[in-house]
Design brief:
This protein has 896 residues and is α+β, with helices and mostly antiparallel strands. The protein is built from 16 helices and 52 strands. A hairpin with a 3-residue loop joins strand 40 and strand 41. The longest helix is centred in the last third of the chain and has 22 residues, at 605-626. The relative contact order is 0.09. Bound molecules: beta-D-glucopyranose. Beta-D-glucopyranose is lined by residues 464-465, 470, 474, 476-477, 587, 590.
Length: 896
């Protein structure tokens, strides 16, 4: 049975309110027949579902198009208008010329022009001082529906955060909207279908505002001043059954008051006094005569953009695994959620009116069992809940989040049970796509920790950490982790949004800062330095490779060019960060163990800078080629040659050893291919020697670590790569695992048996950068990799490289074409391998076997197997090209 399903538009199923003018359509051909592929397709787009089925009023008919392209087909019909919804379906002819048709899907455009916004920016009168926090404004306005309603849409945004309510119901389930952008350039809005929330006659439209990223505390900079208080902009567009329209927008008719939220700040926490709840404020006729009139603010001179990527939503709930009591007199109760997580708790409590429960959050405990909050720095991460009294009360904050495993309750009336606390996990709503497991439980825990650090740090933007007074979009961290991220979750939409932020943060001379969205008075206008700024080239390239997304490199090409131009201008004869010219700068090999200051590592910034310069230019050659810009590709090739020559002259000795001689120096030189071929083996051997000198330990930081194992396995040192991965003594990936880590630590020595906790000034226990090993685990152990020439897994490379004493491994990836699976077992030199390749794709299958006669598929010799398109045997392996379907290979390994 073949079906055509998973219809998506701009990576989303039936997106409501996008502003991509020619959205791209994708579908999956699902069938388990071997060698199944799409021979041609026909996309039909119509204004209504009825038209689509009847074939009337068709807006766009691609015609039967002979092509196996089934992802990213751009809509090419007439321009769509603001708010227009269209329905689409696709017909697919397979390799046997059988036609199949999908079910209908739709997408709806958002507001495409500034003049579509009828509302005004409104908010509360000024309370407090310019830098003080103040109670969250509650806003309301009544309106009346006089005619039967057909559909209603709510468009809403804020400077600050907002939640909307209609007649007592919360609109949608998005959190922390409108998300974080550079609010001087761009503010996102969200769109909701509110048809069923409206009533004939009187209705109440309400909103609660929070400070969020625009007004509240960010990092260690204190409160932001994109605005001096939260501002709200919204409109409900009503379409009546008679075809007429009406808009209810934010305007001077709104009223505002203070309610129970006395303070809400992303870093500090939320204070909620339930005695001050405004009962009935969302019911028509509520007496709001004592409420203030809202203030109307001038129009924000920024782009108000649709939200084309995922928004933050609640994802799961966690029950504590243990509870203990500290101090008898004023008891404090400490709950262990068993998992370092990001979000908040739901508190359940019963007690006297006026009792205040203090809720503190921490990642770790002190030896005496108390919560250790030193590493949060100035982030208070404390919520307060004051009871209304008279029964069971449950409460969750709205406009804050915390990174924590432990929760301390102070002032809890009576003795709490474990049910008093539930962890609410939040993150950007990305579809989970990857699974990896193997026979080593410690490596499985490492994969678990990587996954949880991604969950905890993909909160609208990729952050470094979710707990202390930082939580910034560090470009270097995002860049090193992006490959791993793209296995665990569908991150194309997430990165598309952030890459727009990145371009917004670029300065006129082409520099890219270290933190994006840029921060007023801090990161904007600066050069983020090697490995950080290069995110502008590396991240779009990864999204192109992993998702076949050409548009992302096309859209950002001009910005990447400006960046390369900047590098060229600010480097000295090809050397970036040349000490005597621009001055060494950047963050070095952040948190490597071989430096003198414990932070920037021992590798010279000039070496790192020049290596990354070369790498970014090498990627530009490929990007220019993808975009058909041949002249650019040639000029980048010349530039790459210049930089590489400068690198060699400055850092490579005649015998293949590298100046400075750190592990990272060797790793970057090899990873970015900066050596003449005759010196590579020597350099790789030197690297291995350096590792041996450390007793088979790494000493690399954020910059070297992500490439370390790749370089080793590629250079023929698979055994050393496995040894590093399986190393359990400090420093290693598994050392934190053995200390009970449930997320990736910022530092190799976040806590050690000898020294205890690292310096609390910088010691996050949820920092994904070192988790970048995940991509290597998936590719080299699991065996799934992209084919750079057929990106987006149109052709997958399946090439597991067993080792490290592992007896099995399984990797599974939901690609845009469907599920890819590679699962192997090794027993007495017999290698059994199950492979699943989605329809309309092919795979290069590389079997670890030196002799064809030792290989079988489902018991048959390879020559007799259906679906094999090509076959080759080299001295290490049997290489096949196969069509879609499920295969069971077995071979006898000749192990050395
Ligand atoms: C952040 C890192 C970041 C680094 C660069 C730290 O404060 O947490 O993740 O990349 O600074 O210096």
């Amino acid at each position: 049975m073949t079906t055509i399903s998973q219809l998506t538009c701009e990576y989303r199923i039936n997106p409501l309110g996008i502003d991509v003018l020619q959205p791209r359509l994708s579908w999956q051909m699902q069938c388990n027949r071997r060698g199944a592929y799409q021979k041609s397709y026909q996309v039909l787009v119509a204004p209504t579902q009825h038209d689509l089925q009847a074939g009337t009023n068709i807006l766009w008919d691609s015609g039967q198009t002979a092509s196996d392209q089934s992802i990213h087909i751009p809509y090419a019909g007439p321009a769509l208008k603001s708010g227009q919804r269209v329905y689409w379906k696709v017909r697919v002819w397979d390799e046997r010329d059988h036609a199949m048709e999908s079910d209908p899907a739709w997408w709806e455009m958002g507001l495409l022009e500034a003049k579509d916004w009828k509302g005004r920016w409104i908010g509360a009168p000024f309370w407090g001082g310019p830098r003080t926090s103040s109670p969250a404004p509650y806003l309301r306005r009544e309106f009346s529906l006089q005619k039967p309603l057909m559909i209603a849409r709510l468009y809403a945004t804020a400077l600050g955060l907002y939640e909307c309510y209609l007649n007592g119901f919360r609109v949608g389930d998005d959190l922390l909207t409108p998300g974080w952008t550079d609010y001087t350039k761009r503010i996102q809005y969200q769109v909701y279908d509110v048809t069923t929330l409206l009533l004939p006659g009187a209705n109440v439209f309400g909103a609660i505002l929070g400070d969020g990223w625009a007004v509240g505390n960010i990092a260690w900079f204190g409160r932001q001043n994109y605005a001096d208080r939260p501002q709200f902009l919204a409109q409900i567009v009503l379409t009546y059954s008679d075809g007429s329209r009406e808009t209810i927008a934010t305007d001077e008719q709104w009223k505002v008051s203070q309610g129970p939220i006395l303070e809400a700040d992303l870093l500090m926490g939320e204070s909620y006094d339930a005695r001050r709840e405004l009962s009935g404020w969302l019911t028509p006729g509520y007496p709001d005569s004592k409420w203030w009139s809202v203030e109307v603010f001038p129009v924000q001179n920024v782009v108000i953009a649709a939200t084309n990527g995922p928004v933050v939503k609640r994802q799961e709930e966690i029950k504590p695994v243990a509870i203990h009591k500290i101090s008898a007199l004023q008891p404090r109760w400490i709950f262990d959620l068993g998992q370092n997580m990001v979000g908040w708790i739901r508190l359940t409590v019963c007690g006297k009116k006026e009792t205040t429960v203090t809720i503190r959050h921490a990642e770790v405990l002190n030896p005496d069992g108390t919560v250790n909050t030193a590493n949060l720095r100035t982030a208070r991460s404390t919520d307060y809940y004051t009871l209304r009294g008279g029964g069971l009360e449950t409460w969750e904050p709205r406009f804050t989040f915390h990174g924590f495993r432990y929760v301390e309750l102070q002032g809890y009336p009576g003795e709490p049970t474990i049910d008093a606390v539930t962890g609410i996990v939040i993150h950007s709503d990305m579809q989970p796509t990857g699974k990896f497991s193997c026979s080593d439980p410690l490596i499985n825990q490492l994969q678990h920790n990587i996954l949880w650090s991604q969950k905890g740090n993909f909160i609208d933007i990729p952050t470094d950490c979710p707990q202390r007074d930082e939580r910034l979009g560090w470009t270097g961290d995002a860049q090193v982790f992006a490959r791993t991220a793209a296995f665990n979750f569908q991150v194309a939409g997430f990165f598309s949004k952030w890459l727009r932020d990145l371009e917004d943060a670029q300065s006129a001379d082409g520099a890219i800062p270290n933190v994006v969205p840029g921060l007023l008075d801090w990161s904007i206008g600066i050069d983020g330095g090697p490995g950080w700024a290069d995110a502008v080239v590396i991240c779009p390239w990864i999204i192109y490779q992993w998702y076949g997304d050409v548009r992302i490199v096309e859209d950002h090409y001009a910005s990447m060019r400006r960046f390369i131009h900047f590098l060229d201008e600010t480097s000295h004869e090809g050397l970036r960060c040349y000490a005597d010219f621009t001055g060494e700068h950047g963050h070095g090999d952040w948190l490597a163990l071989d430096g003198s200051d414990g932070r920037e590592g021992g590798t010279s910034k000039e070496l790192i800078g020049t290596a990354f310069f070369a790498y970014s230019v090498q990627l530009m050659i490929k990007i220019a080629e993808v975009l058909g810009k041949k002249e650019d590709a040639r000029s980048y090739a010349r530039l790459a040659g210049k930089v590489c020559a400068a690198f060699q002259k400055r850092f490579v000795r005649l015998d293949g050893t590298i100046e400075g001689g750190t592990q990272t120096a060797y790793v970057l030189t090899l990873a970015f291919d900066l050596l003449p071929s005759n010196l590579r083996a020597r350099a790789a051997a030197e690297l291995v020697q350096k590792i041996r000198e450390q007793g088979d330990h790494l000493s690399t930081g954020f910059i070297g670590t992500p490439y370390l194992n790749w370089v080793l396995s590629k250079a023929g040192y698979l055994d050393m790569a496995y040894r590093l991965l399986k190393q359990t003594t400090y420093p290693s990936w598994l050392y934190p695992v053995l200390q009970g880590a449930t997320t990736i630590w910022e530092r190799w020595d976040g806590w050690t048996q000898e020294k205890g906790f690292q310096d609390p000034k910088m010691n996050s226990f949820n920092h994904y950068a070192f988790g970048a090993i995940g991509a290597w685990m998936v590719k080299v152990i699991g065996g799934i990799d992209v084919d750079p020439d057929r990106p987006g897994y149109k052709q997958v490379i399946l090439h597991p490289q067993p080792g490290g004493g592992l007896s099995f491994a399984a990797a599974e990836l939901q690609s845009l074409y469907g599920m890819i699976r590679s699962a192997w077992m090794l027993e007495n030199n017999r290698f059994e391998w199950q492979v699943i390749i989605p329809a309309n794709t092919t795979a290069i299958v590389i079997l670890p076997a030196r002799d064809l006669s030792l290989v079988k598929e489902s018991g048959k010799p390879l020559q007799e197997v259906d679906g094999i398109l090509f076959l080759e045997v080299d001295d290490q392996s049997v290489v096949l090209r196969v069509g879609s379907g499920e295969y069971h290979f077995s071979s006898l390994l000749k192990l050395n």
